[in-house]
Amino acid sequence: MTLLKDILSFNETFVENKEFEKFTTTKFPNKRVVVLTCMDTRLVELVTEAMNFKNGDVKIVRNAGAIVNHPFGSIMRSLLVAVYQLQADEVLIIGHHDCGMSSLSSDAMFAAMKERGVTQEIIDTLRHAGINVDKWLEGFDSVEESVIHSVNLVKSHPLMVPDIPVHGLVIDPATGKLDLVIDGYENAAVL
């Protein structure tokens, strides 16, 4: 049986047994917060448990490295939607130690892509089209600096509420310990 068939088979039983009922909530976060964190598998449940959040308490946005790279990309749009449409009044950006984006190199990514069928011609075409794929595929050296960068980008965004607290934290995926990088309450009105 394939993974997809396993998922669909389990889901059929899940629905029949009404196991979904324990997750019933509204689309609005009870704690009025949106969290941007990494897609790392170790954080799927750890991030919310380590902060005492339950299903329905927060909006979660995930990507590789918990990075806001572009002021008008999908991550920033998701944060703005959470604030303006879904009643989030605070933003938490949570990076983590031992992140796969730490020191990720575009060379390593291109090598892996080529092993799976992407040709050098495609990579060169993107480069010649003015797309800086090398920079786009680079990681970061310091998770704290990456969190600070993302907090500053969100905080200074022209469409973000100027006095919204944007907090920056780093979590240890082995223990769940949170380290404060930026206290958004101290910087709420400062750009």
Characterization of the model:
This protein is an alpha/beta fold and 191 residues long. It has two domains: 27-101 and 142-182, 3-Layer(aba) Sandwich (Beta-carbonic Anhydrase, Chain A), CATH 3.40.1050; 105-138, no CATH class. The chain has helices at residues 3-16, 46-50, 74-84, 106-115, 120-128, 133-136, 143-155; strands spanning 33-38, 58-63, 90-96, 166-171, 178-182. Strands 2-1-3-4-5 form a five-stranded mixed sheet, with helices on one face. α2 (46-50) links the parallel β1 and β2. The relative contact order is 0.15.
Second-tier CATH architecture of the largest domain: 3-Layer(aba) Sandwich
Multimeric state = single chain
The total count of strands amounts to 5
Mean pLDDT: 95
Radius of gyration: 19 Å
CATH superfamily of the largest domain: Carbonic anhydrase
Q: Determine the structural class based on helices, strands and strand pairing.
A: alpha/beta
The CATH topology of the largest domain is Beta-carbonic Anhydrase, Chain A
How many domain modules? 2
Which regions are unreliable across 5 or more consecutive residues at pLDDT < 50?
none
- Describe the main β-sheet briefly: 5 strands, mixed
Q: Determine and state the CATH class of the largest domain.
A: Alpha Beta
In sequence order, what are the helices and strands, one letter per element?
HEHEHEHHHHEE
Strand-residue proportion: 15-25%
- Helical residue percent? 25-40%
Largest sheet, spatial ordering of strands: 2-1-3-4-5
Taking the alpha carbons of the first and last residues, their distance comes to: 54 Å
Number of helical elements: 7
